[in-house]
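User: Quick sanity check before I run a bigger batch. Here is a single chain. Can you write out its predicted 3D structure?
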Amino acid sequence: MNPLMAPESSAHEARCALSVNVNKVALLRNTRHLGIPSVVRAAELCLQAGAQGITVHPRPDGRHIRSSDVQDLAQLLKAWPQAEYNIEGNPTQNLMDFVRQIRPHQVTFVPDSEDQFTSDHGWNLPADMERLRPLIEECQSLSVRVSLFMDPLPDAMPLVAQLGADRIELYTETYASAYGTPREPQVLAGFTVTAQAALAQGLGINAGHDLNRDNLTRFLREVPGVREVSIGHALIADALELGYAETVRDYQRCIQRAYA
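Assistant: Done. Predicted structure follows.
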């Protein structure tokens, strides 16, 4: 069974899956008008090499992933029924139109402003709960799994469960910044406790942001129940040197080492 598709009740038992975020491929393509590198071809090569999913984060300004890319990737993934399509974004901006049109396997709600450089914080609960609740309900009525982008705050996990979200995506930049420094054990412990709190609430756990081949294995060894990592910037940077296929295989080896 593809771990991305396994029931949430088996979250703590499933091996972590790799979803490749192809935003940075689109960012490079958009610097010229030649259509290269191809976002669809990049996704296809990653899937052929063993990635279990594809992630996109289409922002309102279209500075990387465009509406046409979202549609083209949905068409590609019809030929990969075992793979997951995860669309990220702020549900109060342009995200819900994609959800209604495409009905991806998963949607990840991220509290970005329209001009935000990159995602840098999770949802503020309980302050954001009332505006999120109807949007979560709408996604689930369309059979789309909902994950909330969250900071490592264990006390927020019961609130996520109250909202009815299926999963959280742990925002891992603080871990990546602390990796290899004296702060790492303390920061990592915060993620471990948050994951334990999420599992206690029956939530699935995803993770992403600045994870790479150096820090991924340790994170997965220490943080229980991670179902999926979404990796873009580092993976695409590695692919410039190694190629898509070898890069995906190397990230899968990093994941496998966490279970050795």
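DSSP finds eleven helices and eight strands in the chain.

User: Great, the batch can go ahead then.
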